[in-house]
Design goal:
Length: about 750
């Protein structure tokens, strides 16, 4: 069954940047040092941003920095991101990079310019985590020198003075950073790509292959820069969530309006938002009406009309009218802030495939290094083969062996999938659920608020005496005095003048009564009709017909004479029929679980196309139903409101909360939160999960397949160092670009 456990949250979460960290072997060294610090609960890698997230109990930043630095890696210190911006504004402390290195990509330039305008420092991921700090002009000059070395070598030999001089110049311009990191890694016995490249280039030079050593180093530096640019796309997709909410809000102070930081606005404050502006904080409209684009939160494609009393969400866009609203949540507790927190935590948690890949890489690299040493040493010692030939083959093998592509294959795909889901208003609480979604075979759906709209409305008015308008006016006048949901549904139909009601009283479990124009009127259920001696076979037949349709029938009685029947029902959402059909098309069996009566449940099930209906269930009965559906290895999901269905949601392998944008608890408790009330998002999630799983295995197959081919070529002497670099970095770029395809995934 589900392994969702409740564990106390650590006091703080800190992010440290480790610019040269790109694989599990390197992360393990950093993790080992950090876990030696008392109070550290967990350490998670983020290979995309080249950072680690530490869950801890209020440990000073300098202590964490010092511990991470003992791994031998550069750990960049700096100031925490300012409140109201980025992760710090939602309760995640970040230790940012030092003053930014020269940019090597457009995204960095853009961010730098943006921050200068706003007067803020850079945030996590804004271009500070480059694995390769070599500037483009150095790479260009280095490339020219490497080509010159090749030309001179053709004329005068690989070891001629000119070839060596040009090669050294190329290596100095393009490879000093790689050498520096490689030497640090070798001192720590850490076999990362920098260490392998340092050994390979140095070995090639010792063997007299100076032009090849220079060209390999330049190609590697260029490939690193291209990879960094491609990873920036994944970073920017995540950072786009953080940029949704504006930093400033226009707040009322007395009779004046003042622009202040959103993070400082108190609960209950009145905020103004003009047409075209983003809404800074969650709140309730007090004045004005407008259409609001809520796509950032709910994924709805069409703006929603809002008026006084309606909710607003931070990060959404006011369209065409000025609104005044009262703040209901502080900046660090807004719906958007909780979404960002959930996405960040989801990215930090490793999915099952990622855990497998990390474990594989931990043993794979040392094993290949041992094989390379054996290839370099054993053939010359045992058979008298040429030392230079076999050492060269071993160097090629080392470069090919780096598992960068394999390690990048999983986090890129998972992060892209999580971000694509968030853009559609689907908040997935971890890679585990994104991966597991493709295995869903049964989806249990609550009726009220999931398949139906969750509010009763009058569907039929049958006038037995008089006109429909007349009986409706009488019923509305009576029901307007009651707060019962059925009475509210009838009262909502009122458009004319209310009649004066005297002697009003609620009849517990039966209905209401009162006097209008000195006549007694009763409005209630079947039991009240019988008490009023108003029953007849004809009336009974009409009531039975309505109840068979899943409707609640109430009768308006004047004295002892029934004069009207009103049918009330919680109507099916317009999207529910399509949603159920989509689930069936995906091979997922829908099941209805509801506490409602059998007639109503079966009627709704017929309308939406569900055959398996289980009605009149208490919360514990729904829990048992999920246990029964989960028999064997069947993966079961449960869809509910996140509160009343909590036991069943927790028991299911994946719990889905509907309309989570309006429910604080749902975002915190559900595994997957559908931010609007559209059940079609369920099929979107399953489809995205299947696409993510497919891309994950494509990437793993690509990464391992390329390794197998080129390792075989290296052993038989058919691969060169050039080919090794292309195999390693080309594989990394392939898996990155393939993973990023998920950002543009659309349901087929």
């Amino acid at each position: 069954m589900s392994d969702k456990s409740l564990t106390p949250s650590p006091a703080e979460s800190t992010v440290l940047h480790v610019p040269s960290m790109c694989c599990a072997a390197e992360f393990n060294l950093v993790e080992k040092e950090l876990r030696r610090v008392d109070g550290v609960h967990d350490v998670a890698p983020d290979f995309i941003r080249r950072s680690v997230r530490i869950q801890h109990s209020a440990i000073p930043e300098p202590e964490l920095l010092a511990a991470a630095a003992r791994s031998g890696f550069e750990v960049r210190p700096g100031r925490a991101a300012p409140q109201g911006k980025g992760l710090a504004s939602i309760g995640i402390r970040t230790v940012d990079a030092a003053p930014p290195a020269p940019a090597s990509h457009a995204a960095h330039d853009h961010d730098h310019e943006h921050d200068h305008k706003d007067g803020h420092d850079h945030e996590e991921g804004h271009g500070h985590t480059h694995a390769n700090d070599t500037s483009p002009w150095k790479l260009a000059v280095g490339g020219v020198l490497a080509l010159a070395a090749e030309v001179v070598a053709l004329a005068y030999g690989d070891a001629s003075f000119g070839a060596v001089a040009f090669a050294l110049g190329a290596i100095a311009l393009a490879g000093l950073d790689t050498y520096r990191k490689g030497l640090v890694a070798l001192r720590r016995f850490n076999l990362n790509i920098n260490a392998l490249m340092t050994v390979a280039v140095t070995g090639a030079a010792i063997l007299g292959q100076w032009p090849e050593a220079a060209m390999v180093m330049v190609l590697f530096a260029i490939a690193e820069m291209i990879e960094e640019k491609s990873l920036d796309r994944a970073r920017r997709a995540i950072e786009g969530l953080m940029a949704m909410a504006p930093e400033m809000a226009t707040v009322q102070h007395g009779s004046a309006w003042q622009e202040v930081p959103a993070a400082t606005v108190a609960l209950g404050a009145t905020v103004r938002v003009r047409p075209g502006e983003r809404i800074a904080l969650d709140g309730t409209i007090t004045s004005g009406s407008s259409a609001v684009d809520q796509a950032a939160i709910t994924g709805e494609s069409v703006p929603v009309d809002k008026q006084a009393g309606d909710k607003l969400f931070a990060g959404t866009i006011n369209q065409n009218g000025e609104l005044l609203y009262q703040v209901t949540a502080k900046a660090d507790d807004s719906t958007l802030a909780r979404i960002i927190r959930a996405v960040q935590e989801a990215q930090a948690s490793r999915a099952p495939t990622q855990r497998f890949v990390d474990t594989f890489a931990r043993y794979y690299t040392p094993a290949v290094f041992a094989v390379a040493i054996a290839i370099a040493v054993l053939p010359p010692l045992l058979t008298g083969a040429d030392w230079l030939t076999w050492v060269y083959r071993a160097l090629v093998l080392l470069v090919i062996a780096c598992p960068c592509a394999l390690v990048l294959s999983t986090p890129i795909s998972v992060v892209s999938g999580l971000t694509a889901a968030a853009r559609r208003g689907i908040l997935v609480k971890g890679g585990l659920y994104l991966e597991q979604g493709h295995r869903l075979k049964v989806l249990a759906l609550d009726k009220t608020g999931t398949l139906t709209q969750g509010r009763p409305v009058v569907t039929d008015v049958q006038a037995l005496q008089g006109s429909e308008d007349e009986v409706l006016a009488l019923a509305v006048s009576l029901s307007g005095r009651s707060d019962h949901p059925v009475s509210k549904a009838i009262a909502a139909r009122g458009t004319g003048t209310m009649r004066e009601v005297t002697g009003f009283q609620a009849l517990q479990g039966r209905g209401i009564e009162g006097r209008i124009a000195n006549e007694r009127y009763r409005l209630g259920n079947h039991r009240l009709v019988e008490e009023s001696a108003a029953c007849s076979p004809e009336l009974e037949a009409k009531l039975d017909a309505l109840e068979a349709q899943g409707k609640t029938a109430v009768v308006l009685v004047r004295g002892k004479v029934p004069i009207a029947i009103f049918a009330i029902a919680d109507q099916v959402r317009p999207e529910s029929v399509e949603a159920v059909a989509q689930l069936k098309q995906l091979g997922v069996r829908p099941v209805m679980l509801t506490g409602d009566n059998r007639h109503t449940a079966e009627a709704i099930a017929r309308q939406v196309g569900i055959e398996d209906v289980r009605s009149e269930l208490l919360p514990q009965d729904k829990l048992k139903a999920i246990q029964e559906l989960s028999a064997g290895d069947t993966v079961v999901g449960m869809v509910g409101d996140g509160i009343n269905d909590a036991p069943a949601l927790a028991q299911a392998h994946i719990g889905f909360a509907m309309g989570a944008a309006g429910t604080d608890t749902a975002i915190e408790t559900a595994d997957v939160a559908l931010m609007d009330d559209d059940p079609r998002k369920l099929a979107e999630f399953i489809d995205l999960s299947r696409a993510t799983k497919a891309v994950l295995w494509q990437n793993i197959t690509l990464a391992l397949g390329i390794k197998v081919v080129f390792l075989s070529l290296a052993v038989v002497g058919e691969a060169t160092l050039w080919m090794a670099v292309f195999a390693d970095m080309g594989g990394s770029l392939l898996v990155v670009f393939n993973g990023l395809r998920l950002l543009r995934h659309h349901r087929r």
